[in-house]
Amino acid sequence: MHPVLFQIGSFKIHTYGVFVALGFLTGILLARREAKRVGEDPDRISDLAFYIIIVAIVGSRLMYIIVYRKHFMENPLDMVKIWSGGLIYFGGLIPALLISVWYIRKHCMPVWRTIDIMAPPVAFGQALGRLGCFSAGCCYGKETTLPWAVTFSDPESLAILGVPLHPTQLYSSLNAFLIFLILTVVKRFKKFDGLLIWLYTLLYSITRSIIEIFRGDDRGFIIGGVLSVSQFIGIILGLISLFMLLYLRAVNYGKVQGKASSKGGFSSPLI
Q1: Sign of the alpha-carbon torsion through 188, 193, 197, 203
Q2: Cα–Cα distance between 94 and 59 in angstroms, integer?
Q3: Which of 106, 211, 241, 252 has the fewest CB atoms in 10 Å of its CB?
Q4: Of 130, 133, 117, nearest to 47 (Cα)?
């Protein structure tokens, strides 16, 4: 709604960049606190978060450029203007996971426990970042007559002006915050490491695909225009997440069974 937070002469502070920065900063602070709670080194987590931020920004921007390549071929200098909006989340998620595994193995940290530390903070940071999308007008929704529709009027907004639209940015922000709350509760009762990150990926993949239905911006479509790029990636990641949750649960069950057997105990079959 307000793409520029304030301006002094030609110098502008974009609201989008402020919210994204707040999201990253808050995510790091939450991750450090969680690291202390589970007995991991907060400084290692901060270093990991730094790597994640770099590759996430680069990856999400590259995917945005690919999806909107026609615009950037005509306006190549716009490729670096990330402060005004233009990051596709899935483009950053996959390289962030890969760099996390590389860093964790390099420093001999427990892989799934460490990545679980990052899951709730990522969701919370994402909730703040989506408020930046709302401010910039990117990721806007389809036209609607619903009472909570929003109408963008700022000429610097990336959304269609003067038309009531679905506030899909707010849908996404609320969705990420709810996922954060779910993960915050689940982490207190989790039975195996890896649960949080794959539960996050599963929940986000499903809900993002639903929110995509209400998006009105051009995001690129595949399979004959049936699915957006994000929906297609979401389906793949959702299936991978479900498989990993079942796999890690089975591995954990096997370990529990092995311990019970070594002590002469008995455990009920997996159901």
Answers
A1: negative
A2: 8
A3: 106
A4: 117
Query: Which token pair is 65?
Result: 């450029």
Taking CA atoms, 8 is separated from 4, 12, 13, 19, 225, in Å, by 11, 7, 9, 19, 44
Burial profile 31-52: b = 16 or more Cβ within 10 angstroms, e = fewer:
bbebbeeeebebebbeebbeeb
Torsions phi, psi for 41 (to 5 deg): -75, 115
Give the span between the Cα atoms of 185 and 123, in whole angstroms.
13
The token pair that represents 69 in the structure block: 């390549």
Render each residue's pLDDT in the chain as its tens digit; 271 residues. 788 877 787 777 888 888 988 998 999 999 999 999 999 999 999 999 889 888 888 888 888 787 777 777 877 877 776 655 667 777 887 888 889 889 999 999 998 999 999 999 999 999 999 999 899 898 899 999 999 999 999 988 889 999 999 999 999 999 999 999 999 999 999 999 999 999 999 999 999 999 999 999 877 777 767 888 888 888 999 999 999 999 999 988 777 666 666 665 544 443 3
Of 180, 189, 208, 34, give the one whose Cα is nearest residue 115. 34
- Give 241-245 contacts, CB < 8 A, sequence gap 24+: 241/198, 241/199, 241/201, 241/202, 241/205, 242/202, 244/194, 244/198, 245/194, 245/195, 245/198, 245/199, 245/202
The single-letter code of the amino acid at 17 is G
Q: What length is written for the chain?
A: 271
Pair of tokens at residue 21: 């920065």
Reduced to 3 states (helix: H, G, I; strand: E, B; else coil), residue 161 is strand
Q: Any idea what the Cα angle at residue 138 is, between residues 133 and 140, rounded to 5°? A: 100
Determine the residue type at 88.
Answer: I
